[in-house]
Amino acid sequence: MSESIPAPDEHNVWRLQTNNSSKDWEKSPYPDAENKYFMVSADGHVQEPKDLWKVRLPEEYWSRLPGVQVDSKGTQFQKTEGFRPLRIRNIKIEGEDALRNASGRDPQTRIDDLAKDGVDAEILFPNLGLTMWATPDSKFSQMMCRAWNEWAWEEYGPYNDRLAPMACIAAGDIEGAIAEIQRCAKLGFRGLSLPCKPTWGPPNHEDPNYNLPEFDPLWACIQDAELPMTFHVSTGRDPRTSRGNGGAVINYAVHSLAPPWSLLPIFARPGFWIGFRSLSLVLLRQVLVGSPGPCRHWMRPTKNTICGFGPSLKCCPASILSKTVLPAFRRTKWDWIWPGSTAW
């Protein structure tokens, strides 16, 4: 194992302030324990090169790529087709925060850093690449996703037993999505990452959504590939919707975290899991799966067809979701991504 983590500075002391509840666990999460849990970091993000898409996409698309713009006052803004301009703040990072910010720049360093925390494997998502879905042009989004997948496999493919990037898919381009899923499955990707909405932007009843039958070939393809699908927060629409007092909290708690939650009734709809019994899906940064409030409302169409609901469900939505959906913020088994993980 690589060198240990240095003592925290004053801004990071709180990280060690735990209640030591793991002392009563069956096993230990600590790296040097003899009886250690198999630990998977379920929501890691990579550090992509800034020119990833420019060197892989034709020049005609360069002006549309995510990037940085500077206004007449010298202020820098993040430029993305689907986001409103985001001012870039130059924050000086020091101490342990600087160490953390610089970690994971290459696969082997990432593995060494994970070992310090007792983490055996990591599921990886885009960082800069989260903007790949921030465009209403699904085919352009698919091009960026394919470029990211090519880079991710070149970078992390040789380490796929410890570091598993999720293949990014632009679901709005159904034909292109199916082709990319089949390509990535053959390469050896362990899972897929789809946006929370297939078409970028605020809710619009005229846009296609995942509950429509035209997406059935996509679910069939994913089922045939035997790959779990994940949905990360802040994809599908701009999460920065509110401004003013409390805007940051509102944006995170509602406009960032809510879209994955809204997928649950879509995938619990009548007949879906009858046709696609083998699918597994993961909602990143979610803890609400199976919560009683929404599921109580879904019980009504379970029992009978009323108020325009139909056909009636044959079982409770909560029972469907508990068997097929995993929230990433929960202690759970990840054998669907690392089968036989107990052998590690």
Could you walk me through the main structural features you see in this protein, from its secondary elements to its overall organization?
The chain is α/β, with parallel strands linked by helices and 344 residues long. Helix content is 30%, strand content 11%. A 5-stranded parallel beta sheet has the order 7-8-9-10-11. Strands 1-5-6 form a 3-stranded parallel beta sheet. The longest helix has 19 residues. It is globular. The C terminus is likely disordered.
Low-confidence stretches: 287-292, 329-344
What's the β-strand tally? 11
Q: Structural class, from helix and strand content?
A: alpha/beta
Mean pLDDT: 81
The CATH homologous superfamily of the domain at 13-238 is named Metal-dependent hydrolases
Largest sheet: 5 strands, parallel
CATH topology of the domain at 13-238: TIM Barrel
Shape: globular
Total of helices: 10
DSSP strand (E) fraction?
Answer: 5-15%
The CATH class of the domain at 13-238 is Alpha Beta
Strands in their spatial order, largest beta sheet? 7-8-9-10-11
The portion of residues assigned to helices is 25-40%
Gyration radius over CA: 21 Å
Distance between the termini: 15 Å
Instruction: Just name the CATH architecture of the domain at 13-238.
Output: Alpha-Beta Barrel
Order of helices and strands: EEEEHHEHEEHEHEHHHEHHE
